[in-house]
Amino acid sequence: MARFSRRDVLMQTAAIAAAGTMANASHAGSAPLRVLRQARDIDAVLRAKVDSGAVPGVVAMAASAQATIYEGAFGARAQGAAEKMSVDTVFRIASMVKLLTSVAALQLVERDRLKLDEPAASIDPALGSLQVLAGFDAKGTPQLRPPRKPITLRNLLSHTSGFSYPLWDAGVVRYLRAARSDPALPRSVLMFDPGSRWAYGGSLDHVGRLVEIASGLTLDRYFQDHILRPLGMSDTGFTISEPQRTREAHLHVRQGNGSLEPQPLEKHTLPKRFSGGGGIYSTAPDYLTLLQALLSGGSFAGTSILRPQTVALMAANQIGDLDAGVMKTTNPAISNDVDFFPGVRLRWGLGHMLNLDPVEGGRKAAA
Protein backbone atom coordinates (compact mmCIF):
# COMPACT_ATOMS: atom_id res chain seq x y z
CA MET A 1 0.00 0.00 0.00
CA ALA A 2 1.28 3.46 -0.84
CA ARG A 3 2.19 5.57 2.16
CA PHE A 4 -0.12 8.47 2.91
CA SER A 5 1.61 11.81 2.37
CA ARG A 6 -0.01 14.45 4.54
CA ARG A 7 2.05 17.09 2.76
CA ASP A 8 0.63 16.09 -0.65
CA VAL A 9 -2.95 16.46 0.55
CA LEU A 10 -2.20 19.69 2.40
CA MET A 11 -0.53 21.20 -0.65
CA GLN A 12 -3.41 20.28 -2.96
CA THR A 13 -6.00 21.47 -0.46
CA ALA A 14 -4.13 24.69 0.29
CA ALA A 15 -3.87 25.55 -3.38
CA ILE A 16 -7.60 25.15 -3.89
CA ALA A 17 -8.52 26.87 -0.62
CA ALA A 18 -6.16 29.77 -1.30
CA ALA A 19 -7.96 30.49 -4.53
CA GLY A 20 -11.23 30.28 -2.64
CA THR A 21 -9.96 32.85 -0.15
CA MET A 22 -9.26 35.31 -2.96
CA ALA A 23 -12.64 34.68 -4.53
CA ASN A 24 -14.34 35.15 -1.19
CA ALA A 25 -12.35 38.13 0.06
CA SER A 26 -14.92 40.72 -0.97
CA HIS A 27 -17.94 38.47 -0.37
CA ALA A 28 -17.48 37.17 3.17
CA GLY A 29 -21.19 36.55 3.56
CA SER A 30 -21.77 34.75 0.26
CA ALA A 31 -20.48 31.68 -1.58
CA PRO A 32 -19.78 32.41 -5.27
CA LEU A 33 -20.22 29.57 -7.75
CA ARG A 34 -16.44 29.59 -8.31
CA VAL A 35 -15.83 28.82 -4.61
CA LEU A 36 -18.44 26.07 -4.60
CA ARG A 37 -16.71 24.38 -7.52
CA GLN A 38 -13.39 24.57 -5.69
CA ALA A 39 -15.03 23.07 -2.59
CA ARG A 40 -16.07 20.10 -4.70
CA ASP A 41 -12.45 19.78 -5.83
CA ILE A 42 -11.27 19.70 -2.20
CA ASP A 43 -13.95 17.12 -1.42
CA ALA A 44 -12.65 14.95 -4.26
CA VAL A 45 -9.03 15.12 -3.04
CA LEU A 46 -9.93 14.16 0.52
CA ARG A 47 -12.52 11.53 -0.39
CA ALA A 48 -10.00 9.84 -2.71
CA LYS A 49 -7.54 9.40 0.17
CA VAL A 50 -10.27 7.83 2.33
CA ASP A 51 -11.51 5.61 -0.48
CA SER A 52 -7.98 4.36 -1.19
CA GLY A 53 -7.54 3.30 2.44
CA ALA A 54 -4.60 5.67 2.90
CA VAL A 55 -6.39 7.32 5.82
CA PRO A 56 -9.50 6.15 7.74
CA GLY A 57 -11.08 9.59 7.95
CA VAL A 58 -10.36 13.27 7.66
CA VAL A 59 -11.84 16.60 8.73
CA ALA A 60 -10.70 19.71 6.87
CA MET A 61 -11.54 23.37 7.21
CA ALA A 62 -10.17 26.57 5.70
CA ALA A 63 -10.90 30.17 6.57
CA SER A 64 -9.95 33.75 5.97
CA ALA A 65 -9.82 36.16 8.89
CA GLN A 66 -13.46 36.99 8.29
CA ALA A 67 -15.20 33.77 7.29
CA THR A 68 -15.01 30.00 6.94
CA ILE A 69 -14.58 29.20 3.25
CA TYR A 70 -14.46 25.41 3.35
CA GLU A 71 -15.38 22.53 5.61
CA GLY A 72 -15.65 18.83 4.91
CA ALA A 73 -15.61 15.48 6.73
CA PHE A 74 -15.04 12.06 5.15
CA GLY A 75 -14.55 8.50 6.29
CA ALA A 76 -14.85 7.01 9.77
CA ARG A 77 -13.60 7.95 13.23
CA ALA A 78 -12.06 4.47 13.46
CA GLN A 79 -11.00 2.19 10.62
CA GLY A 80 -13.88 -0.18 9.86
CA ALA A 81 -16.22 1.39 12.44
CA ALA A 82 -19.70 2.74 11.83
CA GLU A 83 -19.13 6.15 13.42
CA LYS A 84 -18.58 8.64 10.62
CA MET A 85 -16.28 11.63 10.74
CA SER A 86 -18.12 14.89 11.26
CA VAL A 87 -16.87 18.45 11.41
CA ASP A 88 -17.28 18.42 15.21
CA THR A 89 -15.22 15.24 15.71
CA VAL A 90 -12.93 15.55 18.74
CA PHE A 91 -9.23 14.87 18.14
CA ARG A 92 -6.18 14.60 20.32
CA ILE A 93 -4.19 17.44 18.80
CA ALA A 94 -0.82 16.76 20.46
CA SER A 95 1.71 19.52 19.80
CA MET A 96 -0.92 21.87 18.41
CA VAL A 97 -1.39 22.94 22.03
CA LYS A 98 1.98 24.71 21.73
CA LEU A 99 0.29 27.63 19.96
CA LEU A 100 -2.17 28.03 22.84
CA THR A 101 0.73 27.98 25.29
CA SER A 102 2.55 30.61 23.24
CA VAL A 103 -0.53 32.85 23.24
CA ALA A 104 -0.88 32.42 27.01
CA ALA A 105 2.75 33.40 27.62
CA LEU A 106 2.49 36.44 25.36
CA GLN A 107 -0.66 37.57 27.17
CA LEU A 108 1.42 37.59 30.35
CA VAL A 109 4.18 39.50 28.56
CA GLU A 110 1.56 42.12 27.68
CA ARG A 111 0.60 42.29 31.35
CA ASP A 112 4.26 42.59 32.39
CA ARG A 113 4.10 39.30 34.29
CA LEU A 114 6.69 37.66 32.02
CA LYS A 115 9.64 39.12 30.09
CA LEU A 116 10.83 37.87 26.70
CA ASP A 117 14.52 38.53 27.23
CA GLU A 118 15.16 38.18 30.94
CA PRO A 119 16.49 34.86 32.32
CA ALA A 120 13.51 32.50 32.61
CA ALA A 121 15.10 31.08 35.77
CA SER A 122 13.97 34.24 37.58
CA ILE A 123 10.45 32.78 37.30
CA ASP A 124 11.24 29.05 37.32
CA PRO A 125 14.55 28.37 39.12
CA ALA A 126 14.69 24.85 37.63
CA LEU A 127 15.72 26.45 34.34
CA GLY A 128 18.82 27.89 35.97
CA SER A 129 20.46 24.59 36.93
CA LEU A 130 20.53 22.93 33.50
CA GLN A 131 23.81 21.95 31.85
CA VAL A 132 24.80 21.62 28.19
CA LEU A 133 25.88 18.31 26.69
CA ALA A 134 29.32 19.07 25.23
CA GLY A 135 29.86 15.54 23.90
CA PHE A 136 30.98 12.10 25.06
CA ASP A 137 34.42 10.91 26.12
CA ALA A 138 36.16 7.81 24.79
CA LYS A 139 34.18 5.62 27.19
CA GLY A 140 30.87 7.13 26.13
CA THR A 141 30.46 9.17 29.32
CA PRO A 142 28.52 12.40 28.74
CA GLN A 143 30.56 15.59 29.17
CA LEU A 144 28.51 18.42 30.66
CA ARG A 145 29.22 22.13 31.14
CA PRO A 146 27.27 25.24 32.18
CA PRO A 147 25.46 27.11 29.37
CA ARG A 148 27.13 30.25 28.05
CA LYS A 149 23.84 32.15 28.17
CA PRO A 150 20.74 31.85 30.35
CA ILE A 151 17.52 30.54 28.78
CA THR A 152 14.97 33.26 28.02
CA LEU A 153 11.27 33.06 27.21
CA ARG A 154 12.14 34.14 23.66
CA ASN A 155 14.44 31.10 23.39
CA LEU A 156 11.70 28.81 24.65
CA LEU A 157 9.01 30.18 22.33
CA SER A 158 11.31 29.99 19.30
CA HIS A 159 12.79 26.53 20.06
CA THR A 160 16.32 27.89 20.48
CA SER A 161 16.53 27.01 24.19
CA GLY A 162 18.64 23.86 23.83
CA PHE A 163 15.83 21.39 24.56
CA SER A 164 15.37 18.71 21.88
CA TYR A 165 13.07 15.72 21.49
CA PRO A 166 14.74 12.27 21.40
CA LEU A 167 12.53 11.26 18.45
CA TRP A 168 14.51 13.63 16.22
CA ASP A 169 17.86 13.96 18.00
CA ALA A 170 20.34 11.08 18.21
CA GLY A 171 22.35 12.99 20.82
CA VAL A 172 19.40 13.00 23.21
CA VAL A 173 18.88 9.27 22.66
CA ARG A 174 22.51 8.55 23.46
CA TYR A 175 22.48 10.76 26.54
CA LEU A 176 19.30 9.23 27.95
CA ARG A 177 20.76 5.75 27.48
CA ALA A 178 23.80 6.80 29.53
CA ALA A 179 21.67 8.54 32.17
CA ARG A 180 19.60 5.39 32.74
CA SER A 181 22.72 3.54 33.83
CA ASP A 182 24.19 6.41 35.88
CA PRO A 183 21.87 7.88 38.55
CA ALA A 184 24.34 10.72 39.14
CA LEU A 185 23.59 12.22 35.72
CA PRO A 186 20.75 14.79 35.49
CA ARG A 187 17.56 13.60 33.81
CA SER A 188 17.45 16.58 31.47
CA VAL A 189 20.22 18.50 29.70
CA LEU A 190 20.47 21.11 26.97
CA MET A 191 21.82 19.96 23.61
CA PHE A 192 23.35 23.35 22.81
CA ASP A 193 23.76 26.84 24.22
CA PRO A 194 20.56 28.91 24.22
CA GLY A 195 20.25 30.97 21.06
CA SER A 196 22.93 29.07 19.12
CA ARG A 197 20.74 26.54 17.26
CA TRP A 198 17.13 25.55 16.57
CA ALA A 199 15.72 22.21 17.70
CA TYR A 200 12.15 21.03 18.14
CA GLY A 201 11.74 19.86 21.69
CA GLY A 202 10.14 20.31 25.09
CA SER A 203 10.57 24.08 25.30
CA LEU A 204 6.83 24.73 25.45
CA ASP A 205 6.42 22.37 28.40
CA HIS A 206 8.62 24.82 30.29
CA VAL A 207 6.66 27.78 28.93
CA GLY A 208 3.52 26.18 30.34
CA ARG A 209 5.16 26.04 33.74
CA LEU A 210 6.18 29.71 33.46
CA VAL A 211 2.53 30.57 32.70
CA GLU A 212 1.40 28.68 35.80
CA ILE A 213 3.93 30.36 38.08
CA ALA A 214 3.40 33.86 36.71
CA SER A 215 -0.40 33.64 36.71
CA GLY A 216 -0.95 31.58 39.85
CA LEU A 217 -3.28 29.29 37.87
CA THR A 218 -2.94 25.76 36.56
CA LEU A 219 -2.45 25.73 32.81
CA ASP A 220 -5.87 24.26 32.09
CA ARG A 221 -7.56 26.96 34.18
CA TYR A 222 -5.50 29.70 32.56
CA PHE A 223 -6.46 28.46 29.08
CA GLN A 224 -10.13 28.32 30.05
CA ASP A 225 -10.24 31.76 31.65
CA HIS A 226 -8.11 33.71 29.18
CA ILE A 227 -8.36 31.98 25.78
CA LEU A 228 -10.91 29.18 25.42
CA ARG A 229 -13.96 30.63 27.15
CA PRO A 230 -13.49 34.16 25.74
CA LEU A 231 -13.27 32.73 22.20
CA GLY A 232 -16.10 30.24 22.72
CA MET A 233 -13.81 27.23 22.19
CA SER A 234 -15.98 24.85 24.22
CA ASP A 235 -14.59 21.65 22.64
CA THR A 236 -10.96 22.33 23.56
CA GLY A 237 -9.31 21.21 26.80
CA PHE A 238 -7.06 18.74 28.58
CA THR A 239 -10.12 16.66 29.49
CA ILE A 240 -13.35 15.98 27.62
CA SER A 241 -16.87 15.19 28.79
CA GLU A 242 -18.74 11.97 28.11
CA PRO A 243 -20.81 13.60 25.32
CA GLN A 244 -17.60 14.84 23.72
CA ARG A 245 -16.11 11.37 24.08
CA THR A 246 -18.85 10.00 21.81
CA ARG A 247 -17.43 12.27 19.10
CA GLU A 248 -13.77 11.31 19.61
CA ALA A 249 -11.62 9.94 16.79
CA HIS A 250 -9.38 6.95 17.45
CA LEU A 251 -5.62 7.05 17.16
CA HIS A 252 -4.36 4.80 14.35
CA VAL A 253 -0.94 3.14 14.18
CA ARG A 254 0.56 2.22 10.82
CA GLN A 255 1.60 -1.42 10.60
CA GLY A 256 4.63 -2.83 8.83
CA ASN A 257 2.55 -3.63 5.73
CA GLY A 258 1.32 -0.05 5.50
CA SER A 259 -2.15 -0.69 6.90
CA LEU A 260 -3.62 1.35 9.75
CA GLU A 261 -4.70 -0.24 13.03
CA PRO A 262 -7.17 1.69 15.24
CA GLN A 263 -6.22 1.89 18.91
CA PRO A 264 -8.72 1.73 21.80
CA LEU A 265 -9.83 5.07 23.18
CA GLU A 266 -7.63 6.04 26.08
CA LYS A 267 -8.90 5.75 29.66
CA HIS A 268 -9.92 9.21 30.80
CA THR A 269 -8.43 10.39 34.06
CA LEU A 270 -8.08 13.89 35.42
CA PRO A 271 -4.45 14.94 34.82
CA LYS A 272 -2.45 15.97 37.87
CA ARG A 273 -0.16 18.11 35.72
CA PHE A 274 -0.79 19.90 32.45
CA SER A 275 1.70 20.12 29.61
CA GLY A 276 2.26 23.20 27.50
CA GLY A 277 3.60 20.96 24.74
CA GLY A 278 0.95 18.25 24.30
CA GLY A 279 -1.98 16.33 25.70
CA ILE A 280 -4.99 18.42 24.70
CA TYR A 281 -8.21 17.79 22.75
CA SER A 282 -9.96 19.99 20.21
CA THR A 283 -12.12 20.09 17.09
CA ALA A 284 -11.44 21.67 13.72
CA PRO A 285 -13.95 24.54 14.25
CA ASP A 286 -12.55 25.30 17.71
CA TYR A 287 -8.94 25.42 16.57
CA LEU A 288 -9.86 27.44 13.50
CA THR A 289 -11.37 30.04 15.84
CA LEU A 290 -7.96 30.50 17.46
CA LEU A 291 -6.31 30.83 14.05
CA GLN A 292 -8.89 33.36 12.89
CA ALA A 293 -8.26 35.42 16.02
CA LEU A 294 -4.56 35.55 15.11
CA LEU A 295 -5.32 36.27 11.44
CA SER A 296 -7.44 39.19 12.66
CA GLY A 297 -4.64 40.70 14.74
CA GLY A 298 -5.62 39.10 18.05
CA SER A 299 -9.41 39.53 18.07
CA PHE A 300 -12.38 37.43 17.00
CA ALA A 301 -16.11 38.20 17.15
CA GLY A 302 -15.48 41.22 19.34
CA THR A 303 -13.18 39.39 21.78
CA SER A 304 -9.50 40.34 22.01
CA ILE A 305 -6.91 37.85 23.26
CA LEU A 306 -3.73 39.66 22.12
CA ARG A 307 -2.73 43.11 20.90
CA PRO A 308 -2.10 43.47 17.15
CA GLN A 309 1.57 44.34 17.72
CA THR A 310 2.02 41.14 19.73
CA VAL A 311 0.49 39.05 16.94
CA ALA A 312 2.83 40.77 14.49
CA LEU A 313 5.77 39.85 16.72
CA MET A 314 4.65 36.22 16.69
CA ALA A 315 4.90 36.22 12.90
CA ALA A 316 8.35 37.86 12.78
CA ASN A 317 11.53 35.81 12.39
CA GLN A 318 12.98 35.34 15.90
CA ILE A 319 15.96 33.12 15.07
CA GLY A 320 17.93 35.09 12.47
CA ASP A 321 19.82 32.86 10.05
CA LEU A 322 19.35 29.62 12.01
CA ASP A 323 17.69 26.85 10.00
CA ALA A 324 14.41 25.43 11.34
CA GLY A 325 11.85 22.79 10.58
CA VAL A 326 13.99 19.92 9.22
CA MET A 327 14.42 16.90 11.50
CA LYS A 328 15.97 13.46 11.08
CA THR A 329 14.07 10.67 12.80
CA THR A 330 15.72 8.37 15.33
CA ASN A 331 12.81 5.91 15.19
CA PRO A 332 11.35 5.31 11.70
CA ALA A 333 8.64 3.09 13.19
CA ILE A 334 7.14 6.14 14.90
CA SER A 335 8.08 9.04 12.63
CA ASN A 336 9.44 9.70 9.18
CA ASP A 337 12.08 12.36 8.65
CA VAL A 338 10.44 15.79 8.80
CA ASP A 339 10.85 18.40 6.06
CA PHE A 340 7.56 20.18 5.45
CA PHE A 341 8.78 22.34 2.57
CA PRO A 342 11.91 20.87 0.92
CA GLY A 343 14.21 23.53 -0.46
CA VAL A 344 12.37 26.36 1.31
CA ARG A 345 14.16 28.48 3.93
CA LEU A 346 12.34 27.94 7.22
CA ARG A 347 12.57 30.02 10.38
CA TRP A 348 10.55 30.32 13.61
CA GLY A 349 8.53 33.12 15.19
CA LEU A 350 7.05 33.19 18.69
CA GLY A 351 4.83 30.16 18.37
CA HIS A 352 4.99 28.84 14.82
CA MET A 353 7.10 28.12 11.74
CA LEU A 354 7.76 30.76 9.08
CA ASN A 355 8.74 30.19 5.47
CA LEU A 356 10.98 32.86 3.92
CA ASP A 357 10.29 31.67 0.37
CA PRO A 358 6.86 31.40 -1.27
CA VAL A 359 5.57 27.86 -1.75
CA GLU A 360 4.17 27.26 -5.21
CA GLY A 361 0.44 26.66 -4.92
CA GLY A 362 0.65 27.07 -1.15
CA ARG A 363 1.88 29.49 1.48
CA LYS A 364 3.30 32.89 0.61
CA ALA A 365 6.62 33.97 2.10
CA ALA A 366 6.63 35.52 5.56
CA ALA A 367 6.76 39.29 5.44
What does this 3D model show about the protein?
The structure is a single chain. The protein is α+β, with helices and mostly antiparallel strands. Helix content is 32%, strand content 13%. The chain is built from ten helices and 14 strands. It has a two-stranded antiparallel sheet with strand order 1-2. It has a two-stranded antiparallel ribbon with strand order 3-8. A two-stranded antiparallel ribbon has the order 4-5. The longest helix has 19 residues, at 6-24. Mean pLDDT is 90; it is low at 1-33.
Topology, please?
Elements: H1 6-24, H2 33-51, E1 57-63, E2 68-75, E3 91-92, H3 97-110, E4 132-136, E5 142-145, H4 153-157, H5 170-180, H6 203-215, H7 219-231, H8 242-245, E6 252-254, E7 260-262, E8 281-282, H9 284-295, E9 299-300, E10 303-304, H10 308-314, E11 326-327, E12 338-339, E13 346-348, E14 353-355
Antiparallel strand pairs: 1-2, 3-8, 4-5, 6-7, 9-10, 11-12, 13-14
Sum this structure up briefly.
This protein has 367 residues and is an alpha+beta fold. The chain has helices at residues 6-24, 33-51, 97-110, 153-157, 170-180, 203-215, 219-231, 242-245, 284-295, 308-314, and strands spanning 57-63, 68-75, 91-92, 132-136, 142-145, 252-254, 260-262, 281-282, 299-300, 303-304, 326-327, 338-339, 346-348, 353-355.
